[in-house]
């Protein structure tokens, strides 16, 4: 079942399927194109179709596999609280990886992930066997150790995001209203109208009973993810990953970012590559899709 309105101007997938998760929820997976496999996913409260201006740049010469996490995008709706959300997301990730292999066959894979999905990818890679030849993480929100100078600013930002998520408007009569809201938001000032339309369409789902649109990712679920609970030793666990990893941070021109220094410290401790996208924010893949895709391609070229 397709739970979300279609994002605009997106070509039909070559294959689509659902992965059943351990509690009966499902995750939506779509496949585009042929070639070496690249797998992509999204950040908290968003949807992979919101990033289509980025990942569609791979579909001509990669088997591009994209997926929505539980209760996001086209995956099944949120029904009840999850007591330990981050351990659940990591177990879900294992089910999704196994589902991709079952459906498409095993293949060496390149990962290109934003924020929450990048963090989950690295946490999963620290505990499970993976298909990765390399991982590109666009600002994974790795909480620094408490004695690091970056810790307090990062925690303050995440607490702010959790509080804002908990207060989000939940219903809309049409997609246009959310599009206009995004258009007024300084957080998405660098995203063009086509990107904002994709963002609005993919982060809503139609409710037949209520005859209106509602957030695809319930605000209480989004807020619970931002609180970053149940992640003891996550920084150290991820720094133990022995795979090629490229971390990418947006570098805004006019304001500071809580991510640049944190990502640089994370790269230092993990022995990972690090680069920035100038004049870009946390949503750099929507703002500068060609530049972000070029980073992924250059990273991949260095692996082969």
TrEMBL record:
One of its GO terms (molecular function) is hydrolase activity. InterPro entries: AB_hydrolase_1, AB_hydrolase_fold, AB_hydrolase_sf. SUPFAM superfamilies: alpha/beta-Hydrolases. Residues 38-294 form the AB hydrolase-1 domain. Keywords: Hydrolase. Transmembrane segments: none annotated. GO terms for cellular component: membrane. Pfam families: Abhydrolase_6. PANTHER family: HYDROLASE, PUTATIVE (AFU_ORTHOLOGUE AFUA_2G14860)-RELATED, MONOACYLGLYCEROL LIPASE. This is Alpha/beta hydrolase.
